[in-house]
């Protein structure tokens, strides 16, 4: 019996595989524009305890390359024969570090045959555990050690072996503040003792800014900040062309310029457009302008799903209104115009503007103007409006807080870092439904069909039961763990 679908043929051996990595956390085939950061981190490891950069906080918007940087730092540590312990800062991470990751690191040391380099800065002794690497004995200790104890024990043993420990924490979020404080308290003690360790953590800007500004811990405040931004146009071009050529295809100057332009120099898009172009070219040796155009068209949908939805759907209500009031023109917008669209004084709208800047959603290219920071945000808003119109729902931008709350209640817990609970939602204050409806009505009035900067969809008078449901966060297969 024939199948009711067609199975694509297995590609033959000669088919060339795409070199691109449009996967979160995957080290790209060419890591553009980040060499100086890598050099700084290596320098910190080589310089001894207390060196700047031995504690580093990596921040930047989604898809800019934070997880990749942590992975690269791990490779740097590895090149110095340091051990690495890594975790995502999700609930229970301190326990996972204490009971699994740190003991595993010691096991690695037990079985490693390599000669480890001597850590500069002399040895330290904190707990008097030095000398033993018999992890079996340590693991079966009757009293379950806490993180501080386990860390100091590990560091002392590593120091005895002339090596050090890099601890990386990805997706740091304020909702696990107590756990984070437990870790940073222990790390402060380790710093004071001159222990051989380095720490690198990554999180979204509002989280990292919040942690530093609120002075959650002196250790974090003193940490080196790495604010990742978009690539330079040259970096994006190199990030596209070099992997294509290394993997056996070509791309001409015109097609390359178009690919760079469509990527907006945004790291995730460089991978996505590179990968889509490769696929569009099929068995052809040359990636042409047509292939790039096809690639760019399909990349936007993926961007919407992977970047815009998780970033924008979790914004507090008033901040979503601010974003909606910026409209879909794509270029810079005057802050006074946005405030006017929202129906609030400019100073009041400024609170939402500051919070959105802090989150990396918008930037202020010059005084009195704002613009979207993530490429294709305006296209996303436009697509959302069209969807809302077509389906006669209120859509993402005009659902009320209670609708969203019930939608969230029906949605399985999100695993990915959410912007909810960030510092800025407190700044925005709680907005009740009546206020929201009032603001929506105002926005609708200001966005009458045909008006120049029309941002509001024609919403039905009665709230639809099919309010926008926040998307599920990216499936876990998007984030590979090494
Ligand atoms: N310097 C770079 N040059 C080219 N591509 C890069 C660079 N840095 C990261 N990428 C690519 O960008 C994508 C996103 O990287 P990564 O997962 O590290 O982002 P992130 O900031 O951790 O995102 P999120 O906030 O969603 O966790 C990946 O596909 C990665 O391969
Ligand atoms: Mg990440």
Features:
binds adenosine-5'-triphosphate; 20 helices; Arc Repressor Mutant, subunit A; three-stranded antiparallel β-sheet; Helicase, Ruva Protein, domain 3; disordered C terminus; alpha/beta; 3 domains; Rossmann fold; 10 strands; 482 residues; binds magnesium ion
Low-confidence stretches: 113-122, 127-142, 398-405, 407-482
Widest β-sheet, arrangement of strands: 2-3-4-1-5
| CATH architectural name of the largest domain | 3-Layer(aba) Sandwich
How does the helix and strand content classify structurally? alpha/beta
Distance between the termini: 42 Å
Biggest sheet statistics: 5 strands, parallel
What ligand molecules are bound, each kind once?
adenosine-5'-triphosphate, magnesium ion
Gross geometry: globular
CATH class of the largest domain: Alpha Beta
What is the CATH topology classification name of the largest domain?
A: Rossmann fold
CATH superfamily of the largest domain, please? P-loop containing nucleotide triphosphate hydrolases
Helicity, in percent? 40-55%
Portion of residues in beta strands equals 5-15%
What is the domain total for the residues? 3
Total strand segments: 10
Rg computed from alpha carbons, rounded to a whole number of angstroms: 25 Å
């Amino acid at each position: 019996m024939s199948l009711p679908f067609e199975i694509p043929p297995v590609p033959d051996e000669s088919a060339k595989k795409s070199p691109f990595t449009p996967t979160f956390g995957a080290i790209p085939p060419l890591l553009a524009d980040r060499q100086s950061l890598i050099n700084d981190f290596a320098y910190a490891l080589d310089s001894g305890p207390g060196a700047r950069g031995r504690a580093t906080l990596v921040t930047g918007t989604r898809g800019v390359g934070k997880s990749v940087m942590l992975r690269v730092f791990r490779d740097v540590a590895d090149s110095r024969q340091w051990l690495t312990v890594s975790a995502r800062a999700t609930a229970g991470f301190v326990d996972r570090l204490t009971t699994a990751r740190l003991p595993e690191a010691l096991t690695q040391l037990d079985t490693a045959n390599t000669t480890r380099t001597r850590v500069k800065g002399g040895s330290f002794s904190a707990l008097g555990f030095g000398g033993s690497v018999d992890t079996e004995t340590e693991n079966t200790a009757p009293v379950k050690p806490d993180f501080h104890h386990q860390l100091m024990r590990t560091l002392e043993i590593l120091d005895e072996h002339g090596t050090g420990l890099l601890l990386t924490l990805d997706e740091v979020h304020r909702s696990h503040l107590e756990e984070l404080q437990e870790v940073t308290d222990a790390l402060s003690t380790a710093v004071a003792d001159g222990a051989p360790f380095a720490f690198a953590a990554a999180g979204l800007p509002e989280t990292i800014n919040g942690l530093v500004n609120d002075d959650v811990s002196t250790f974090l405040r003193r940490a080196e900040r790495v604010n990742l931004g978009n690539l330079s146009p040259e970096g994006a071009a190199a990030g596209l062309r070099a992997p294509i050529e290394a993997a056996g295809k070509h791309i001409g100057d015109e097609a390359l310029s178009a690919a760079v332009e469509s990527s907006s120099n945004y790291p995730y898009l460089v991978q996505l457009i590179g990968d889509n172009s490769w696929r569009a070219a099929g068995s052809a040796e040359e990636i042409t302008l047509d292939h790039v155009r096809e690639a760019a068209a399909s990349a936007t949908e993926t961007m919407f799903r992977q970047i815009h939805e998780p970033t924008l759907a979790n914004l507090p209500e008033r901040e979503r209104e601010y974003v909606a009031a910026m409209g879909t023109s794509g270029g810079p917008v005057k802050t006074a115009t946005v405030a006017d669209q929202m129906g609030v004084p400019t100073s009041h709208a400024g609170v939402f503007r500051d919070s959105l800047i802090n989150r990396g959603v918008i930037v202020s290219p010059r005084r009195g103007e704002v613009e979207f920071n993530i490429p294709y945000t305006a296209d996303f808003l436009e697509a959302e409006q069209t969807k809302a119109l077509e389906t006669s729902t209120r859509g993402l931008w005009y659902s009320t807080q209670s609708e969203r709350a019930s939608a969230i209640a029906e949605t399985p817990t999100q695993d990915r870092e959410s912007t909810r609970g960030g510092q800025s939602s407190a700044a925005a204050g709680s907005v009740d439904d009546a206020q929201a409806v009032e603001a929506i009505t105002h926005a609708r009035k200001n966005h009458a069909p045909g008006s120049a900067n029309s941002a509001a969809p024609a919403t039905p008078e009665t709230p639809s039961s099919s309010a926008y449901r926040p998307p599920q966060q990216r499936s876990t297969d998007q984030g590979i763990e090494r």
